Amino acid sequence: MRDVLEELDERRSEARLGGGETRIAAQHERGKLTARERIEALLDEGSFEEFDMFVTHRGTDFGMADKRYYGDGVVTGWGTVNGRTVFVFAKDFTVFGGSLSEAHAEKIQKVQDMALRNRAPIIGLYDAGGARIQEGVAALGGYAEVFQRNVLASGVIPQISVIMGPCAGGDVYSPAMTDFIFMVRDTSYMFVTGPDVVKTVTNETVTSEELGGARVHTTKSSIADGAYDNDLEALLQMRRLIDLLPQSNTGALPEIECFQSVKQDDPSLDTLVPKNANTPYDARELIEKTADEGDFFEIQAAFAQNIVVGLGRMEGRTVGFVANQPMVLAGVLDSDASRKAARFVRFCDCFSIPIVTFVDVPGFLPGTAQEQGGLIKHGAKLLFAYGEATVPKVTVITRKAFGGAYDVMASKHLRGDINYAWPTAQIAVMGAKGAVEIIFRKDVGDADRIAEHTKMYEDRFLSPFVAAERGYIDEVIMPRSTRRRVARGLRMLRGKELENPWKKHDNIPL
Ligand code: HXC
């Protein structure tokens, strides 16, 4: 019996070495952890249960018959994050560069199936060179099986991808279909085709970093939702994110103890909005002063910074925050901001996370670049997302809510449940200057008359009261009471029931 047990131990030790000590050392030299070290950092200590440790590939071409490593380049299984079950797979770069064979793909499919069946989040850690070149078409089939499972799990269980090394070719599309992608700065990159192919096809000379590094994907392409300085930080932040997420679309919202009373008003909010309507203030400050303990997990912080989105908690329960950011482009809605917020709103709605929206928006961004770039379609995405969302929606207009952007930003008319305004709110078709120049065109040039008309317009329309008279605003609230009012509203809305008409799926303008 002892021999049998020893053999198991030996096999396990061999499997845990992946591609061997030299390759592990090379991984460390690049500042990267190994697949198993990453899983250890992500999960609660000692909670990892590994599956398929002894799987090897079945390839025989190109001398592969005698090149087999236990695990075949991916470590899979499940464990817990602060006690809650999550499934995980981590590409092992030390084995054939983490490349995907048929057997490797089957290991991933198994945990995808288990995560979906057991309604628990799944996290993929990427560090891989794409399809196993020696296997050819079997690898392609394997990828498509993984992709199909991503699609079916979308909106049912949270799916998170962390890119911690190369992620090229077939490896990019599975992350692209998950809810979030995070990257590690300097060591990770993501692209469909690498610099060599780019050079051959387009004659462009480009580095991996320029083509698909964390900076590109967090600031330009918006493929990535955030980036961290190293593996450990990324994995610790993933633990923080998982804590905020429900297990599935039918799972309860996670609830933790809240240490900050919602009854305490914050007088500093009374002076957050500057007297001059064109002077910016930081929407993040408003979110942090509303969320429990100022804890805010921002998504896509470096992209379309004119809108801020992310997760926090109110009275211990997860809430999605969306806020126009007056510090960037005066908080205007453009195509990028609309797409960014639309995806976030839809994420929250999938997983029954209530949405709190702070509005200070001068309108949609005018210009040929925006119009030719599809502003109508992209703006419609956000409108659509808010309009279809059935989760509790609490909106607070702090200052400007002009034109179509007023409608879009979780207005009463898009089934906003509670719509508050601060006394500084200005709800109107447009700002005073633009309005007066159109209505009183014949007086343009007569400064006194224009000033008079402007004053009249401002007095009549640039306040929350015209909208409040119509019931578009449920109440004008003191800024200092925002946290309390929003929290009470969300508490009341815990039992909300609202269903859209049956449909196969909608046809959101993509
Ligand atoms: C088999 C691979 C591999 C692959 C890497 N390796 N990629 N083996 N299939 N796709 C192996 C290498 O041979 C090497 O083995 C080890 O992994 C480490 O690779 P290095 O090249 O030494 O590492 P590095 O210099 O860091 O470069 C990493 C890399 C590079 C950028 C990922 O390996 C690379 O370009 N790989 C090929 C990428 C690619 O073209 N993949 C196919 C994409 S097509 P040894 O034994 O020497 O340690 C695709 C289509 C699917 O994915 C589409 C589905 C939709």
UniProtKB/TrEMBL annotation:
Domain CoA carboxyltransferase N-terminal: 1-257
Record-linked PROSITE patterns: COA_CT_CTER, COA_CT_NTER
GO cellular component, as recorded: acetyl-CoA carboxylase complex
One example of a Gene Ontology biological process annotation: carbon fixation
Domain CoA carboxyltransferase C-terminal: 268-504
UniProt xrefs under SUPFAM superfamilies: ClpP/crotonase
GO molecular function: acetyl-CoA carboxylase activity; propionyl-CoA carboxylase activity
Superkingdom per UniProt: Bacteria
Gene3D superfamilies: 2-enoyl-CoA Hydratase, Chain A, domain 1
Record family assignment: Belongs to the AccD/PCCB family.
Protein name as annotated: Propionyl-CoA carboxylase beta chain
Species of origin: Pararhizobium mangrovi
